[in-house]
Write a structure and sequence with these properties.
Blueprint lengths: L3 H9 L3 H13 L4 H23 L5 H22 L8 E7 L7 H12 L2 E5 L6 H11 L3 E5 L5 H15 L4 E5 L5 H7 L3 E3 L2 H11 L1
Parallel strand pairs: 1-2, 1-3, 3-4, 4-5
């Protein structure tokens, strides 16, 4: 029997060997799909521990990247038991770094953490033009659109993109993130929420779904 608390703690402690040992042993017991979903939830709870430790300054960016990779690895072990992945998807996020900005570290951390939390993330990459966001939003009708930017000029690109999405008539939540974003810029852009912390961003998305 899998000890879910032990699994959660091992993920939170970033103990890759322990996580894999627990999950591989679990898979050998031929668990049911429901039990596998409990294991996924335990892994996601571990990710919440990672996010909290990052907020407290005990974990750093490298730890977040590693945590995202660890969670992806863990879920891959469980995938054969989970069967139809539809039932473990929390929601779809269309994500990209806005037009004029080529930075992607923050975006990639957020993507890894969101995927680990059960979201399907469609990553449009960097320097994404407003019309490309709109095209993908119309095509996928995601619950959430995430926009990242590090440069100050990204704020105007975000506003242009949000305006274009709203004009398309698709009802979706918009979260913006990156160094220059503030409460004031969030209001100016017309986004629903903002964050400068990937872990907090994932929590916001979980609240929305």
């Amino acid at each position: 029997m899998l000890n879910l608390k032990e699994l959660t703690q091992a993920v939170g402690d970033l103990e890759e060997d322990d996580v894999m040992e627990l999950l591989n042993g679990f898979v050998e017991t031929k668990p049911s799909e429901a039990e596998a979903q409990e294991a996924v939830a335990a892994c996601q709870d571990g990710m919440a521990i990672v996010g909290d430790l990052f907020e407290k300054g005990e974990y750093f960016v490298g730890d977040l990247i590693f945590a995202g990779e660890l969670l992806t690895e863990a879920i891959n072990v469980l995938k054969p038991i989970l069967g139809n992945q539809e039932n473990v998807v929390a929601g779809t996020i269309v994500l990209g770094t806005v037009h004029g900005d080529l930075h992607d570290i923050g975006k990639n951390i957020f993507r890894s953490m969101s995927e680990a939390a059960g979201f399907e993330v469609i990553d449009l990459g960097i320097d994404v033009a407003p019309e490309n966001f709109v095209k993908k939003v119309i095509e996928c009708k995601p619950k959430i659109v995430g926009m990242s930017g590090v440069l100050t000029l990204a704020i105007d690109s975000m506003k242009e993109t949000v305006d274009a999405i709203r004009a398309s008539g698709i009802d979706t939540k918009v979260i913006i993130g990156g160094n220059p974003v503030t409460a004031e810029s969030c209001k100016y852009v017309g986004a629903d929420r903002f964050t400068t912390n990937a872990a907090e961003g994932v929590k916001i998305c979980q609240e929305w779904v």
